[in-house]
Structures are given as C-alpha cells and as structure tokens.
C-alpha cells in the first residue's frame, strides 16, 4: 500500500511541475520575447513568467529590464583559520575579499555604453555585455556565518 501511495505521490508531483512549465509562457502580465512554432504573429510571442522584460521588443519601462539577485556566501563558525590579502581570497570568519565587486546594487544608466556600464562588477558586467545592454543584473551579495559543532 505504501508503494502505491508513494508512486501516486511522485506522479502527481511531476504532473504539477509539467503544468507549471506549460503555462509559464502564457501569463498576461509577462512581457518578454519567446520563440513560437512559426505560425503565430510575432506580437503573440511576448510572454514568460520568470524573465525580465525586453525593452527593445516590448518597450518596457526602465526598471522592468532588471533581474535582481541575492548572492549568499555561507561559512561555519568552526572552519580553520585562514587569512590572505589576495583579492580572490575568502578568509575564515570574514566575507570574501571580492564580495563588493560581484553585483551592482542599482541599475546602470541607459545613456552609457553597454560594454562599459558595469565595469568593476563581475556578474552584472558579464550579463550586461552578453545581452548587449538588454539585461541588467542588480542585487547584493551577503556573507553569513552559521553555528556548527564539530563531531
């Protein structure tokens, strides 16, 4: 009986994932470009629940082409001590040395060149250049230390 119940539960779970995936491109408030079957009018290809809007296709206002992220660095209290001045180091008991150069907290100006908009912010710069100025990754990076007892 348990096996049948577990099997039914797994099937229901996967069906619910498929239903969510099948309607993720059809919500009315979603305004990003998607690829269709080739028979639709190009205006009907706007949609997508989890993507930021594209300002070049839909004419979305400033701020709607942002994708906010939160980067979390996690350490445990009893990690062995380490210290380095290297810019790429992550010392124990401290945030990484590069934590403030990963993502920009606010959107860059649209008047700047897309290849220079986010210099000094690795993730924001990469995705802004990769999208040729159409995607703005903003957010913050935080470091937390969790309590942990060694066994």
Give a verbal description of the structure.
The protein has 151 residues and is of the alpha+beta class. Helices cover 21% and strands 15% of the residues. It has helices at 2-23, 122-130, and strands at residues 66-76, 136-146. A two-stranded parallel ribbon has the order 1-2. Helix 2 links the parallel strand 1 (66-76) and strand 2 (136-146). The longest helix has 22 residues, at 2-23. The two termini are 39 Å apart. The mean pLDDT is 73.
Topology:
Elements: H1 2-23, E1 66-76, H2 122-130, E2 136-146
Parallel strand pairs: 1-2
- Range of helix content: 10-25%
Return residue spans where pLDDT drops below 50 for at least 5 consecutive residues. none
Count of folded domains: 2
- Rg, Cα atoms, Å: 22 Å
Number of helices: 2
Shape: flat
SSE string: HEHE
Spatial arrangement of strands, main beta sheet? 1-2
Outline:
21% of the residues lie in helices and 15% in strands. The chain is an alpha+beta fold and 151 residues long.
Feature tags:
single chain; 151 residues; alpha+beta; two-stranded parallel sheet; 2 helices; 15% strand
């Amino acid at each position: 009986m348990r096996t049948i119940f577990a099997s039914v539960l797994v099937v229901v779970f996967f069906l619910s994932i498929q239903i969510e995936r099948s309607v993720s491109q059809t919500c009315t408030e979603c305004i990003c470009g998607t690829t269709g079957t080739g028979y639709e009018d190009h205006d009907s290809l706007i949609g997508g629940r989890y993507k930021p809007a594209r300002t070049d296709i839909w004419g979305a206002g400033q701020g709607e082409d942002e994708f906010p992220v939160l980067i979390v660095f996690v350490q445990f209290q009893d990690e062995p001590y380490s210290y380095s001045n290297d810019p790429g180091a992550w010392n124990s008991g401290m945030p990484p040395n590069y934590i403030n150069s990963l993502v920009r907290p606010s959107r860059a100006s649209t008047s700047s060149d897309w290849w220079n908009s986010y210099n000094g912010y690795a993730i924001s710069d990469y995705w802004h250049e990769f999208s040729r100025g159409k995607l703005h990754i903003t957010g913050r990076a935080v470091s937390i230390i969790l309590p942990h007892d060694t066994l």
